[in-house]
């Protein structure tokens, strides 16, 4: 009996489809399976109006937490707040204005949190900027380092007393695998002499891990843990400055590749969620995670001298008139 002429093409198509599904599932990474509740705990999440931050906020709201959405765009924040309440039935969701590109905004946010919140159990430094054209923050800092590192550095420092008083508490830093290619250019930290979009991003992500390294030492014995993570390659607004997003043709051509190889925001949020709620990590600190598992960071992220030097500069640049010390 002869096979129908369409049997082979259909068989090939089915094989390709099956392989695509398996590859998509594999690239999606691990999913955190714990079902812990965090009722009674207060969580601050920066950049919670979109992407990984939004999905993290939703999941932690489902688990009963009081969630403070720290966002620059309050209109978007209010829409996300309504969405989270609708999907989770958790009404303990608050919007607070935070622009990490403005140190005054960071100070105002922290002043409000410290004055109005009785405790703060989890701080998630999630917001970020990636590979943008050269821009400066309100304070004259290179935008990627200013938002990804300096803004979160000041935010964390100003909330430390509240976190210590709420111990055991957790600080979670969303970094990136890009830190492995990063270097801290202390001779031109603010990229005044030369600017590379990629280099500045990689430097800012390495700065996240060096911030963690020094912070862990300073928090020893306080009950406050600090851990960082790589969320994976995630399809979010963070990539809006990448070249292929600027062209409709490129976006269409590359869509199948993005669909297969990139995580969804829900998948990208899984490691953050584990670090926030897993009881086995209550006393774990100073570690780096990816796909919900502990990983070894790059050698340059373990440089104690660089961590101390960056800390001193960060204190100076966020605690005084930045223009005077650049």
Write the layout of secondary structure elements.
Layout (H helix, E strand, L loop, with lengths): L6 H21 L14 E5 L4 H12 L3 E6 L2 H15 L4 E5 L5 H14 L5 E4 L17 H23 L3 E6 L22 H22 L5 E7 L17 H14 L3 H4 L1 H8 L10 E3 L2 E3 L8 H16 L2 H4 L1
Parallel strand pairs: 1-2, 1-4, 2-3, 4-5, 5-6, 6-7
Antiparallel strand pairs: 7-8
Helix pairs in contact: 2-3, 4-5, 5-6, 5-10, 6-10
Can you put this structure into words, describing what you see?
The longest helix has 23 residues, at 143-165. The chain contains 11 helices and 8 strands. It is α/β, with parallel strands linked by helices and 326 residues long. InterPro entries: NAD(P)-bd_dom_sf (IPR036291), SDR_fam (IPR002347). This is Retinol dehydrogenase 13-like.
**How many beta-strand elements?**
8
Rg for CA atoms = 21 Å
Quote the average pLDDT.
89
Number of helices: 11
Share in helix: 40-55%
Low-confidence stretches: 15-24, 320-326
Task: List SSEs in N-to-C order.
Answer: HEHEHEHEHEHEHHHEEHH
Subunit organisation of the chains: single chain
Identify the overall geometry.
globular
Task: Specify the structural class.
Answer: alpha/beta
Strand order of the largest sheet: 3-2-1-4-5-6-7-8
Q: How many angstroms separate the termini?
A: 81 Å
Quick structural overview:
The protein has 326 residues and is α/β, with parallel strands linked by helices.
Q: Key terms for this structure?
A:
oxidoreductase; Retinol dehydrogenase 13-like; NAD(P)-bd_dom_sf; oxidoreductase activity; SDR_fam; single chain; 326 residues; 8-stranded mixed sheet; alpha/beta; 8 strands
């Amino acid at each position: 009996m002869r096979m129908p002429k369409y049997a082979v093409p259909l068989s090939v198509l089915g094989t390709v489809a099956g392989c695509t599904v398996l590859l998509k599932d594999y690239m999606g990474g691990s999913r955190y399976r714990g079902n812990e509740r965090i009722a009674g705990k207060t969580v601050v999440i920066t950049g919670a109006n979109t992407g990984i931050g939004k999905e993290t906020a939703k999941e932690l709201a489902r688990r009963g937490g009081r969630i403070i959405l720290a966002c620059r765009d309050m209109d978007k924040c209010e829409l996300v707040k309504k969405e989270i309440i609708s999907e989770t039935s958790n009404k303990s969701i608050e919007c607070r204005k935070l622009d990490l590109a403005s140190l005054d905004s960071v100070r105002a946010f922290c002043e409000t949190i410290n004055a109005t919140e009785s405790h703060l159990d989890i701080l998630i430094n999630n917001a970020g900027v990636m590979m943008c054209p050269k821009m400066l923050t309100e304070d004259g800092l290179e935008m990627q380092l200013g938002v990804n590192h300096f803004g979160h550095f000041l935010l964390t420092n100003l909330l430390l007393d509240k976190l210590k008083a709420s111990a055991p508490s957790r600080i979670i830093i969303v970094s990136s695998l890009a830190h492995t290619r990063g270097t801290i250019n202390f001779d031109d930290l603010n990229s005044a002499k030369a600017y590379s979009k990629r280099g500045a991003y990689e430097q800012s992500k390495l700065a996240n891990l060096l911030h963690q390294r020094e912070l862990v030492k300073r928090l020893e014995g306080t009950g406050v843990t600090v851990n960082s993570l790589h969320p994976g390659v995630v399809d979010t607004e963070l990539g809006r400055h990448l070249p292929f997003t600027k062209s409709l043709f490129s976006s269409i051509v590359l869509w199948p590749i993005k669909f297969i190889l990139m995580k969804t925001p829900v998948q990208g949020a899984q490691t953050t969620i584990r670090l926030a709620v897993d009881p086995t990590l209550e006393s774990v600190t100073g570690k780096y995670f990816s796909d919900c598992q502990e990983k070894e960071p790059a050698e340059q992220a373990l440089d104690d001298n660089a961590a101390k030097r960056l800390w001193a500069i960060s204190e100076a640049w966020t605690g005084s008139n930045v223009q005077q010390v650049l």
